[in-house]
Design goal:
By secondary structure, the chain is mainly α. It has one domain. The chain contains eight helices and no strands. Helix 1 (2-19) crosses helix 7, helix 3 packs parallel to helix 5 and helix 6 (132-160) runs antiparallel to helix 7. The structure holds fe (ii) ion (2 copies). One fe (ii) ion is lined by residues 52, 79, 82, 147, 174.
């Protein structure tokens, strides 16, 4: 059963890659621009930290209670660690401590909106009768697809720019989360590739909005600081 789940996950990952091909050049260009200047890079890293924190807070808010199992606690701990990892790298790049206030982030409103709308659209698509655990697993799965896709591109840019840090450990965990969410959906009899593709399609539209906001933010920063 595990190998079946893995092959379903691999096939969904390939479809995700294919559906996002047109975004690769734009994302690489955006990442390269942020990485070119340490203050800009710090804002991007801090934004990723905030997104990881929102993700972990969401797990805590929806999964706390009698049914909280060890895999979910581990997922929560790892997403919290990712928020810490990106915050630490952000502060190293900035050379001072950073909070999550507007001036320390890149496109903060769009980043928060991305999660809120994804949450709302997932709940809408699943409908009122969906069991709460399925909503958590589907939402996580869609986010993990994006995280793995984005962090792979980011890691390649970090290697090209000879960055002092690597995303390899975060990437390995996100990859494993994808398999775990898929396996858990299979266990409760809810692994529905067509539904996940629909959710990913909606997520892509939201990610495009976030990407556009990140591009505008780096443009604005270049004008005020570098111009
Ligand atoms: Fe994460
Ligand atoms: Fe994850």
């Amino acid at each position: 059963m595990q190998s079946t789940t893995q092959s379903v996950t691999r096939s969904m990952s390939s479809e995700f890659e294919l559906a996002n091909t047109s975004l690769v050049d734009r994302v690489e260009a955006m990442l390269e621009r942020y990485c070119a200047h340490s203050k800009q890079h710090a804002r991007l890293l801090n934004t990723l930290s905030m997104l990881e924190h929102i993700g972990s807070r969401k797990i805590m808010a929806t999964q706390s209670g009698k049914g909280l199992d060890q895999p979910t606690l581990k997922h929560l701990a790892e997403e919290t660690r990712h928020a810490f990892f990106f915050k630490r790298q952000a502060e190293r790049a900035a050379r001072h401590s950073l909070d999550y206030s507007e001036k320390s982030l890149a496109a903060p409103a769009a980043a928060r909106m991305y999660f809120q709308r994804l949450d709302a659209s997932t709940a809408r698509t699943l409908g009122r009768n969906a069991i709460p655990k399925a909503a958590y697993l589907y939402m996580s799965m869609v986010v993990e697809f994006r995280a793995v896709w984005l962090y792979r591109l980011y890691q390649a840019v970090l290697e090209r720019t000879r960055s002092a840090f690597s995303l390899r450990s975060v990437l390995a965990e996100e990859d494993r989360h994808l398999e775990e969410m898929s396996g858990a959906l299979k266990t409760i009899g809810a692994l529905d590739a067509a539904l996940i593709e629909r959710l990913c399609c909606g997520e892509r539209r939201l990610f495009e909005r976030l990407l556009a906001a990140l591009e505008r933010s780096v443009d604005g920063f270049a004008l005020t600081v570098l111009g």
